Amino acid sequence: MTADGGSGSDPALWSPSQVVVWMTSFEEGRYAPLVTQLKSLSGRQLLDLTEPQWVRVQPTALASSLRYTLLGMHQVATAAPQSSVRGDSSTLGSEGNYLSAGSPRSTTTSRKNKKKQKPTSSIPPCEFPPMLARPSWIVIVFVLLLGVGAILVFVVFKDKLVGTQWDTKRILTVASIPLISVVFTYGHIWLALYMTFYPLEYVGIMQFPGTNMGVCGWQGIVPFKGEKMARMSVRIMTSQLLDVREVFSRIDPAQVVKELEPILFSTIKDIVETMANKYNPSLWRVLPTSVKDEIVEKVKEDAPVHIEALMGEIKHHIDDVFDLEDMVVTHMMKDKQLLVNMFVTCGYQELAFIRDSGATMGFIFGLLQMGLYLVWPSLTKYVTFPVFGLLVGTLTNWLALKMIFEPVNPKKILCIKLHGLFLRRQQQVAAMYGEMVSRDVLNAHNIIEAILKGPASDRLFELVYANVQQAVNSGAAVADRIVSIGIGKDTFESIKDDITDLVVQKFPDSLRHIEAYTMVALDLNKTLREKIGQLSFHDFERLLHPVFEEDEWKLVLMGGVLGLALGFIQTTYEPDHAT
Fold first, then answer.
1. Where is there biased composition of kind Polar residues (predicted)?
2. Whether residues 138 and 105 fall in one domain
């Protein structure tokens, strides 16, 4: 059971004290007014209460809502597979404490278990741009020219340089400045990009509370900010890309009935036989097969109408029974690798380009540093290497991060067109993003599981119970038939309650049979692709950039610190060549 009312555990297992805690905590104490009347009952006893007993609980409407909520939670917990969208995020404590995942009230045992068992990813990581990649032809030519120059200096002109100001050692010192800058800038920019996404969990010692850093350790920005990023993304998604009500309006209740036809007959037959065997098994055994089939066929004839009505009700109240934000956040937080994969897959080209541009930026800054070294060699030890290291590390990381999303709108300076690298590929990214989100997050399976088990699932089961009871009550012809074969009208009232419970018990599995149709009908891949492709550059930039924008300064700072450290290392080797 979860703090927001999800059905993460079976109410049948709750003690009276746990029931009280849930009733006073669920939806800010929605059922608290009933505590005095029900505080002595366990979850199992509440589930076993009959309709007449529930009628005596006041107020009646609230009691009815509680009954449907508990029955729905119980049916999902016992009928559904163990794995759920919500996951094992929280439990009721052994002493009735209402605990949620990450709550400061979590038990000591839970904290110890979390420390011992580090989360493992079940989703394989996508390819990340490697640090060492196949060099471009420009790099190959540059390396060849560098090799030729080295041969000339150390072999051909070696003797001529002896005794001059430019001996081989001094040439090596000067030439090494841009080379070291190239290697350093290329390396630390790749590291900054990698540290944006990895590691998924904190690695190191003494993590600072509430941060992804420690005395000696780090956690990737994206996985650390995963929940916040997921919530921000889904809010942008719902405000600019998806209208939940419009999307679900694409589901045709009549088509749902057709999809359920293969299991409809067997389900109805099971329910009829279960009720008959429970209330009058001897009579059911001697009934002619034709009479049995007539009863089943009559129920089967009426069922499609009621199923269509129920699906229409669910569509009409979709905002009440489906929490999109909770579903997306919960699913993404189950495995942080999923969120990382989405960013890396969509931005692979930009990440690789920025990694490669590190060498270019490093070479340019290295030439400037070399020029300063030649003009003011006496300042080198104190200024050139440390200060330039700090500037190069800071500015190159800053430029690399800015190049992804800025300028937001294309700008032309002379013959050069400047535009955020990621924004240039809006249509391609839209296709990739739409495919990944619709396949891995907003797929039919996850949506149906979220409807059945999400924080609004109690509303769903209230709706299902109301519609099923209405359907049972409207089955006058069937009722008359049952009464006429000797069951009686009084007993039929009990049968109606049992039928309602049985139908709701089978409802989750029935709903899962329409996953394939739901995926086709919703067509979220196409919707997301088209909507993202139609966004302005500004709105497109706001779709993905804000989720890690506020933490970019950490990577910029890291580049500066590494550059400063490298500068001091270079300084220690400089004195012998300062003049």
1. 82-94
2. no
Q: How far apart are CA 264 and CA 417, in angstroms?
A: 62
Using the 3D structure, point to which of 59, 91, 116 is the last residue of a domain. Answer: 116
Two tokens, residue 309: 């009505």
Beta strands in 29-163 (DSSP E): none
Sequence letter at residue 358: G
Same domain (yes/no): 447, 546? yes
pLDDT in tens, 83-93: 333 333 333 33
Domain presence at residue 122: no
Distances (CA, A) of 332 to 196, 437, 477: 17, 10, 49
Rounded CA gap, 447 and 161, in Å?
76
Which parts of 317-384 fold into alpha helices (H)?
318-321, 324-334, 336-346, 348-375
- What averages of pLDDT result for each successive group of 10 residues across the chain (579 residues)? 49 88 79 86 87 81 76 64 36 34 36 48 82 76 75 66 66 79 84 87 88 86 83 79 86 82 72 74 73 72 77 82 83 83 85 84 83 72 76 84 85 84 86 86 84 75 72 57 54 67 74 81 87 86 74 81 81 55
Q: Are residues 453 and 512 in the same domain?
A: yes
Tell me, what amino acid is at 310?
L
DSSP 155: I
* Rounded Cα–Cα distance for residues 6 and 147 (Å): 67
Does 68 share its domain with 182? no
Q: How many domains does the chain have?
A: 2
